[in-house]
Amino acid sequence: MIIEPIIKGCIARNCHPYGIRAAVQQQINYIKRVPPVKGPKKVLVIGASSGYGLASRIALAFGGGADTIGVSFEKGPNEKGPGTAGWYNNIAFREAAESAGLTARNFIGDAFSDEMRRQVTDYILNEFGGEVDLVVYSLASGVRTAPDGVTYRSTLGVRNTPFSGEAFDLEHQTLTRQTLEPVSDQQLQDTVKVMGGEDWQLWIDWLNQAGVLAKNVKTVAYSYIGPESTWPLYRDGALGAAKTHLHRTADILNNQLSATGGQAHVVVCKAVVTKASAFIPVFPLYIALLYRVMKEKHLHETCIEQMYRLMAEMLYPIRGETPVDDQRLIRIDERELRADVQAEVEALRKQVTPENFMTVSDFSGYLQEFHALNGFGLPGVDYRADIDPATLAAMKP
Ligand code: NAI
Hints:
Layout: E1 7-8, E2 11-12, H1 17-33, E3 42-46, H2 51-64, E4 67-72, H3 85-99, E5 104-108, H4 114-127, E6 132-137, E7 143-145, E8 151-153, E9 163-169, E10 174-180, H5 185-195, H6 198-209, E11 213-223, H7 238-258, E12 263-268, H8 275-278, H9 283-296, H10 303-315, E13 330-331, H11 339-351, H12 357-360, H13 363-373, H14 389-394
Parallel strand pairs: 3-4, 3-6, 4-5, 6-11, 11-12, 12-13
Antiparallel strand pairs: 1-2, 7-8, 9-10
The structure holds 1,4-dihydronicotinamide adenine dinucleotide.
């Protein structure tokens, strides 16, 4: 079969397995070009198959020689299609890590379940040396079934008054208008249940009780704050409420872990193109404007540059302590938030129309990264080559 990109709305409906291998290799190549990370050797990444979680794993494995465990929710090939991009990211990562002599174990399933916690803990105890020294929590999900069996769904909504803005229709490559509706109290609480810190806390408590956290263990979860222009749709909306909960959880976990020299941090990252961010209404246009400005100023970063900077300079600095702001947050979004960057983004935003959005914003850069997430548009990949479904079925994470 020949695989060509299919996009519906803002969701990619398929992926190219060999293109994905090339995309993962690009990130590995970047890490091999920069100075090494003097970081942890045994790492658990929850949400490891794409975006910031995958980039964290690559930075630590190929930058610091870490053995890694990755947990993710992905699907392999079936009669409907080749499977999800994250499925092949996991395969490409494991193959490359094993070739480099590293342990890379993938667990595919529901990270919100105690069953997954049990499987991962058993593996750490029996096959991974008994301990981890870093736990990265990088889940992005719209739904969570808690251990008591209750299922919560998140809502990408605002508070109080509706918020409208221009938005990309990636499928038709047009600019449309989207409105985010106010969420009810129940929707807000449910979004906090899905994307807040409760599940992160459950993981750390579970691992702690099982005795698999190393003495000086660190744990991080990722957050977004963004510039004031995005606050109505993100920081002050339902997702922002969940992130506030995540930030509070970091402090609780930090208090717990500090007794044995451990640390828990929230890391505030910049806006990048990922499967999760593409799904947030209105947000992708902001990302494409930001990309244009940051590229022009030679400040552009994707997941891998951000995660390298986090690991090498912030979480495991060669000298000194981890730098934090007055809320104890690790900030790697400082370039995005620079006043000159935001002033130019705002000036461009005012010019955007349905006719000119492709040139005023970095729409082509956005689309290129979106395609690359799914293995399309990578140099050196023969997209006309016939792919044998049996070969794909034989590839295991
Ligand atoms: P992503 O969609 O690329 O990755 C999400 C990961 O979560 C995938 O590995 C997926 O398999 C996993 N996952 C989702 N549900 C799961 C489940 N039930 N069980 C196991 N694994 C599951 O997302 P992205 O963008 O990398 O987001 C990761 C974190 O980074 C999130 O907390 C997000 O809020 C944060 N962040 C993202 C920014 C962005 O611009 N993309 C900016 C700042 C923070």
